[in-house]
Backbone:
């Protein structure tokens, strides 16, 4: 809920969103596109969108939202790990990214957002997580990269630049994977 946040609080939320959306909207889609072509890419985006629409915990969606959330966890797993690796490789502090990923990713309630946000936090040298408010519901999430400094407004541009680097690298990895998949013996195109 942005009404209760100062500029740095909004910046932290934006950096977390940039990290998670890099995985969900870019890298995961590219991975599934490399694996299954356009149908794989569209299928992944459909699963991810369904989770965004009904996968959250609420009285209204509890009875069937859990299925879309679990399916999204499974489908998002490879893209999230590739995002975390590429953030570490292309970020400003590779060792910090790997350290934060190893130490903090499993503490996050999401099995896919954890590695991505922790790796981004370490690569950028900032702290993510902590107390959040969603629709009037307060959540106390673990801090990711506790050694980092608090996020500032200027970190948004750094996170976006990191996201772009990760996206371009993911495009290269996915294109190479698709080419290798297409050139395997016995594979007809």
Residues:
């Amino acid at each position: 809920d942005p009404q209760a946040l100062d500029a740095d609080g909004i910046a932290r939320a934006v950096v977390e969103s940039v990290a998670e959306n890099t995985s969900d909207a870019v890298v995961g889609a590219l991975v599934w596109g490399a694996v299954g072509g356009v149908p794989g890419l569209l299928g992944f985006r459909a699963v991810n969108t369904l989770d965004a629409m009904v996968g959250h915990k609420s009285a209204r969606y509890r009875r069937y939202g859990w299925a879309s959330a679990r399916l999204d966890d499974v489908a998002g797993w490879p893209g999230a790990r590739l995002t975390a690796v590429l953030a570490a490789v292309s970020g400003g502090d590779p060792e910090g990214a790997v350290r934060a990923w190893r130490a903090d990713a499993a503490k996050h309630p999401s099995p896919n957002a954890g590695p991505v946000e922790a790796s981004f936090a370490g690569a950028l040298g900032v702290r993510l997580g902590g107390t959040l408010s969603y629709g009037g519901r307060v959540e106390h999430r673990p801090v990711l990269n506790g050694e980092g400094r608090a996020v500032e407004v200027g970190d948004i541009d750094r996170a976006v630049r990191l996201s772009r680097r990760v996206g371009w690298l993911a495009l290269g990895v996915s294109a190479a994977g698709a080419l290798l998949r297409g050139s395997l013996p016995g594979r007809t195109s």
Remarks:
- The chain is about 70% helix and 10% strand.
- The mean pLDDT is 89.
